[in-house]
Amino acid sequence: TAYTDGTSSLNDGLQELAKNNKDLNNGATSLASGVKDLKAGSQKISAGLQKMQSQLNSNPTFKDDASYNAAVAQYTALNGMIAQVESTIPALQTDLNAIPDQVVATTDFNAKAQAIIDAEKQAGIVFSAQ
Fold this sequence. Notes:
- By secondary structure, this protein is mostly helical.
- The protein has one domain.
- The chain is built from 2 helices and no strands.
- It has helices at about 1-60, 65-120.
- α1 packs antiparallel against α2 (about 65-120).
- The longest helix is centred in the last third of the chain and has 58 residues, at about 65-120.
- The radius of gyration is 28 Å and the shape is rod-shaped.
- The termini are close together.
């Protein structure tokens, strides 16, 4: 029946969802690792900017404030982007952690629905698709 086909399709979908969730979790882990690397790079940029500032301060005849200010602006923007990405990771992880529970709940519901269909077949009750 259409209902049996539906429960079968639902099971297939649940298996695919579980696999995709694993891939998403791996992606979230990679994202967290990437953010860590970005922060390390950002610290190196900060050290470079400090050296640049020191050179500007120690050599009044060489004034390249425009380049320095542009570099600082880029650095500030980069840190803002890193922080924005980093701030999304906890919520992403929470959502990903909830998926397996939902899969289990839906699988349980699906099994109960299939059991009802099987019992109805045993009793000779057959629903046809409209």
